[in-house]
Amino acid sequence: MYQRKTLSASAALVCICLLPLGICFGQPGKTATTGVGLDTLAWLAGAWTGVSEGTKMEEFWLAPDGNLMVGLHRDVFVSGESFFEYLRIESTADGVTFLASPTGRPPTAFKMVALQDRQVVFANKQHDFPQRIIYRLGSEGHLHARIEGIVDGKLKSREWQWQRIDCTEK
Predict the structure, then answer these.
(1) Domains of the chain, each with CATH number or no CATH
(2) Of 22, 40, 129, 163, which has fewest CB within 10 angstroms of its CB?
(3) pTM of the model
(4) SS (H, E, C) 22-48
(5) Which residues pair with 139 in a beta bridge?
(6) What is the rounded distance in angstroms from the CA atom of residue 23 to the CA atom of residue 27?
(7) Which of 23, 40, 43, 50 is closest to 162 using CA atoms?
């Protein structure tokens, strides 16, 4: 009898890391979109990692292709517990949208509201937290991410910084 097997988040990370570098790090201009193309976000593609307060963080983005970028985020805490999030950025006739699915839940959509050089801002004012997601590629080559929003009348935010890794090394 045939048993259906599911792909774990760890196995998905391995598959992403085994992709040829040309795919892993982006090929700008391949996306055929109207308005702002996802090729303008090709700088986000790749494998990123960092450690903050003992938490190991990893984020992986496939290069834009077919009006879509696919990402995966994982945190491993000092306690050994972990968190994951499926991510995607889509370009449609309505514009560019970031969709986040924490722990595999149904996605929450954030519309792109600003793009300049190597910084992009997505927003969803109706979401509880965050209401804004910001990615920026710093001059030092690190990927910076920030989430922010108003909670109980006060601005709340979190920031991360990751460095690019070569996902073909052992």
Answers:
(1) 9-163 (2.40.128.20)
(2) 22
(3) 0.78
(4) HHHCCCCCCCCCCCCCHHHHHHHCEEE
(5) none
(6) 7
(7) 50
Chain length of the chain: 170
Using alpha carbons, list the distances in angstroms from residue 98 to 50, 113, 155. 22, 11, 21
Nearest Cα neighbor of 82 from 101, 103, 61 is: 103
Q: What is the pLDDT of residue 59?
A: 97
Q: Considering only CA atoms, which of 56, 53, 15 is closest in space to residue 168? A: 15
- Contact between 69 and 61 (Cβ < 8 Å): yes
Give the integer Cα–Cα distance in Å for 163 and 16. Answer: 17
Q: What is the C-alpha to C-alpha distance for residues 11 and 74, in angstroms, rounded to an integer?
A: 13
**CA atoms within 13 A of residue 82's CA, in its CB half-sphere:** 12
Tokens of 59: 């984020």
At 56 the three-state DSSP class reads strand
Per-residue pLDDT of the chain (170 residues; tens, 9 = 90+): 434 333 344 434 434 443 433 333 333 333 333 367 899 999 999 999 999 999 999 999 999 999 999 999 999 999 999 999 999 999 988 899 999 999 999 999 999 999 999 999 999 999 999 999 999 999 999 999 999 999 999 999 999 999 999 877 65
CB 98 within 8 A of CB 114: no
